[in-house]
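Record type: ASSEMBLY
Status: queued
Input:
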Amino acid sequence: MMALPLPGLTAATGLLTELSQMFDQPFLRAAFIAGTCIALAAGLVGYVVVLRGQVFSGDALSHVAFTGALAALAFGVDLRLGLYGGCVAFAIVMAALGRRANADDTVIGSVFAWILGLGALFLSIFTTTQSGTGASGGNAGVNVLFGSILGLSTGQALVDGAVALAVVAAFTVIGRPLVFASLDETVATARGVPVRLVGYVFFILLGVTVGVATQAVGALLLLGLLAAPAGASQRLSSRPFVALWLSAALAVFSMWAGLTLAYLAPKMPPSFGILAVATGVYLATVAVPGVLAVVSRR
Amino acid sequence: MPIATPGTPGDGPGVTMAVGIDLHQMFGLHFMVNAYRAGTIVAVVAGAVGWFMVLRRQSFAGHTLAVVSFPGAAGAVWLGLSATVGYFAGSIAAAVVIALVPRSSSGRAHSQESAVIGTVQAFALACGVLFVSLYGGFLDGVTGPLFGTFLGISDGQVVTLGAAAVVVLAVLAALGRPLFFATVDADVAGGRRVPVRGLSVAFLLLLGCTAAEVSQITGALLVFALLVMPAAAAQQLTARPAVSFLVTIGLAVAVTWLSLGAAFFSVYPVGFYVSTFGFTVYVAAAGWRALSERMQARPPRRSPAPSAPPSGAPSGLTAGA
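Status: finished
Output:
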């Protein structure tokens, strides 16, 4: 069949050629490699976070990620040392606190607010001591807060991707007992599931995920990548294992679509694109069933 | 901690031995006078509303409302409006949304609710980043609204803060008694025809206004420090509501004054000082309470043991939890 010269079609083919050239850019290839793995890990871990009603612990860990990374920068160490060290250490503390760590507890809240204040201190130490090294010194703080997925080198992207895939692999091993323990702790204990051990492993995985996601979407925004796909998939399916993998798929979709949007609109920060798609997907799962119900009633 | 090493250019004026002269110098600067005016107004409101917030266990809602003030401010600056307008618009709009969403505490609904809060917070911050990057300036545009700034508070901003504070405090004074009643025992208050649901919506709106005010001093991410820590400390110190209410306001004002002074004489952001001093006060209060409870629990065995001063209180933290 011959293509008709429609104006819409030319616009569409223009878009297609632009999209086909997208992967010629090495930084976008790196972003897609790292982003896909990170989104996969965040979608899986995030589903369990939402299932346990512990989105707050993701929020708390993201504060630690910020402070840990900037402390490492302020003391002149590799950023990832502080990032992963801080996140994993605090994840273990949160696991030890267990269900006592809830959002409206003033003790926990005060501790994490203070940690964030320390992060502000390290940010200012870092920016004042490193100001001689040019613009990259000052931007590092902003990158930790809001991510710099387009700034990853191919080597960094491969390392981040490998870390995220390790989380995914560990998750496939403990996924079944973990979901079981999260759904009904008492029954799981009675059936011989090592609930405490599974809880610790889960929090360590959450810590590593927060650490790796901080480099992609930033400490302040990774909460959305944990919560939005998981919340959406929970609305779409009540079967835990379907919802689990659906959550991972939605996270990867948000990542791909967000990166593509950021490529097409260069003024848009990529983190915003990713978060906007993820939020849009969640809103769609809330709105579409309601609209369908109204339509089918007519 | 090095306070303003003299060698670094672009520091504050530095602390000398003559504190009086330093203070005189500080208050000779108009922007510092404005910072203290604004800080005092904000601290009084934060103390009063924060006291109720801690009592009502809504501190996470307060955090969310404050976070949303950041895109509000960034969006307002991008559109060429005053940041103050943006802070209030963002927080109050979020308060309305939270008030409209029905609260439920059953298992599945609870986990959905936490997903909603997480998504809303992250999306709000992402919008803030978008506005800041559309506006152009990046580093200063981000750290000021997030971690607090006290520079360049105009006379007009002080008047706006003051007017909003008067409104919030007046409404709080009018609602205070029924709100306290509804908070302490919602069932009995409902039985006595106290409009519990209406009060809860009204309080969220007050909380939105307060979060917007506090954000302008401590930054959107550190509102918790001024809203929660003084109230939590005061409730450790005394069980009598009226006393702890006044102590809360006193602590909030003291923390703010100290922080503004410390930030003026050093290079570090004011939000760091507010959260550190607030946290110190809270830890000290929790330690003092743990100590006094221990001494009351077993007085007759021997004379009171020589024990650590209240500041060394990591054990008090767990005891107070």
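Annotation: The two ends of chain B are 30 Å apart (CA to CA).
Annotation: Residues 225 and 275 of chain B are 5 Å apart (CA to CA).
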